[in-house]
Amino acid sequence: MEPGRPAAAGMGGRALCWLLCLLQAGRAGGAELTFELPESARQCFHEPLQRGLKFTLDFQVITGGHYDVDCYVEDPNGKTLYKEAKKQYDSFSHRAEVAGVYTFCFSNEFSTFSHKTVYFDFQVGDEPPILPDMSHRVTALTQMESACVTIHEALNTVIDSQTHYRLREAQDRSRAEELNHHVSYWSVGETVLLLVVSVTQVMLLKSFFTETRATTGAVST
What start and end residues bound the annotated signal peptide (predicted)? Predict the structure, then answer.
């Protein structure tokens, strides 16, 4: 027999159990979406919420114009909970005071020609506890439990960082493409201008020689 094997099996079972708990402990429910917002348009979204439920709205303009948009949030009674104008990005958290359908809208009505691309992340509810009965514990966490909590927080940080860098990459790519279009148009314009100047100079020099020949012929006669 190998005395160390049962203990190792027990440690492995507990580690697997905590790992499953860590994987099942997700973030608060919700949705994230990237959508197109045409010029002079407004797009609204609706979400039914129970009283006392917390929700968080994060948004960012990825492409278009000055990368800004109007945003507001209303409760079921039509009361404005949040309203900002021409924001590039922002975050808003609130706990529902009444049950019903909450509305949040993005408006590009102030722009007459700039097409926008908007990203938002709408999270509903508080994050569930990582470990069972964690909120009612009176004893200190074990080393493995502390490690699970640390890993969970690190994973949340990684998710937030990935979202941030993904949005930055999309925004930078849009700016690079826009700059490339400007450079292409400028190059075409310079080429056309160079051709016009060249043709004009050739015609001007040709006219000088023509006038010189005409003058010489008249003097000889």
Answer: 1-30
The count of other CB atoms within 10 Å of the CB of residue 108 is: 24
SS3 170: helix
Residue 221: pLDDT above 90?
A: no
Tokens linked to 208: 């000088």
Contact 45, 122 (CB under 8 A): yes
Residue 60 contacts residue 88 (beta carbons within 8 Å) = yes
Domain boundaries, the chain: 28-128, 131-195
Determine contact, residues 82/71, Cβ cutoff 8 Å.
yes
CA 85 to CA 96: how far, in whole Å?
23
| 3-class DSSP assignment, residue 217 | helix
Task: Pick left, alpha or beta for residue 30 (phi over 0 → left; psi -120 to 50 → alpha; otherwise beta).
Answer: left
Q: Which CATH class is domain 28-128?
A: mainly beta
Across 109-121, average pLDDT: 90
Tens-place pLDDT, residues 4-53: 444 433 444 444 344 444 444 445 567 888 899 999 999 999 999 999 99
In one-letter notation, the amino acid at residue 127 is: E
Amino acid type, 111: S
Beta strands in the chain (DSSP E): 29-37, 42-49, 54-63, 69-74, 80-87, 89-95, 100-107, 116-124
What would the two tokens of residue 190 be?
């310079």
The pTM for the full model equals 0.62
HEC string of 12-31? HHHHHHHHHHHHHCCCCEEE
